[in-house]
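Retry 2 of 3 after timeout on previous attempt. Resubmitting structure tokens to design endpoint.
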């Protein structure tokens, strides 16, 4: 049972970590977060997640003043106190109180959670996506504004899909909680502009480059998306997940492709030795 969290400079019990009802995270949805995990008891890409969180806050006008050393120590202290050998983490900052009689200082949480391998069974059989005509506001920030994803949750479940793919003006961007790659004639493509820079995305690009695959970051059209030979998504909690259907359209031959299997193995080998 998770008992402890980090809140505004201290590690305290969860029941004491509370926000005022006038906090801007509640009344205006103003805040940002990051999500990361451990492999082999070590935080995966901690400096990259720390830097991305700082940038997310900068994009929306907030500052992150916790040092990297204190951030990393707090995470490992939480694992120890909560008696966890592996953990996922939510790093969250809200905007502070909007009520003049209360402090306006932002609130910072670090939440340690058990790792759930919910998506593991889909790694071999693939998943489906549904599409939405949507471009996230402040796309370079991992903000707490997930209205579109939550709004479409029932539609996603009804379609038997796993993720929501955002398209806008016939261009491909990202999924609600993932980045996306398409493969055409042996070349890997991934959107470049107006997306959240995923940490797993960056690791996968590096692995592809090191293993002599051709990777191109560019604007991708809806037409190119549906003409892809293979598609997969990447995320902290999904690793490398094959996509075999989008809306009612089958991708490729409707099975997990060989190149996708290769990058899955490259990523699995990478994290096993992390």
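Retry 2 succeeded. Sequence:
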């Amino acid at each position: 049972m998770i008992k402890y969290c980090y809140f505004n400079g201290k590690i305290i019990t969860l029941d004491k970590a509370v926000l005022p009802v006038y906090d801007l995270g509640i009344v205006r949805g103003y805040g940002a977060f990051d999500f990361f995990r451990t492999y082999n008891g070590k935080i995966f890409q901690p400096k990259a997640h720390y830097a991305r969180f700082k940038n997310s806050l900068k994009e929306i006008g907030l500052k992150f003043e916790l040092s990297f050393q204190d951030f990393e120590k707090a995470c490992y202290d939480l694992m120890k106190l909560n008696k966890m050998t592996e953990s996922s983490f939510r790093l969250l900052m809200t905007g502070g109180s909007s009520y003049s009689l209360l402090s306006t200082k932002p609130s910072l949480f670090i939440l340690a959670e058990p790792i759930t391998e919910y998506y593991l069974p889909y790694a071999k059989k693939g998943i489906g996506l549904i599409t939405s005509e949507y471009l996230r506001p402040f796309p370079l920030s991992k903000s707490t504004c997930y209205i579109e994803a939550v709004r479409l949750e029932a539609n996603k479940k009804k379609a038997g899909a796993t993720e929501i793919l955002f398209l806008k003006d016939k261009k491909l961007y990202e999924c609600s909680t993932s980045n996306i790659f398409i493969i055409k004639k042996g070349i890997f493509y991934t959107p470049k502009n107006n997306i959240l820079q995923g940490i797993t995305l960056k690791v996968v690009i590096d692995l592809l480059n090191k293993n002599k695959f051709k990777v191109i970051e560019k604007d991708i059209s809806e037409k190119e998306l549906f003409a892809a030979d293979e598609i997969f998504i990447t995320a902290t909690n999904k690793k490398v997940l094959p996509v075999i259907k989008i809306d009612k359209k089958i991708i490729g031959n409707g099975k997990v492709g060989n190149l996708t299997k290769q990058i899955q193995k490259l990523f699995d080998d990478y994290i096993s030795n992390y």
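Attempt log closed. Residues 4-113 form a domain with the D-amino Acid Aminotransferase; Chain A, domain 1 fold (CATH 3.30.470.10).
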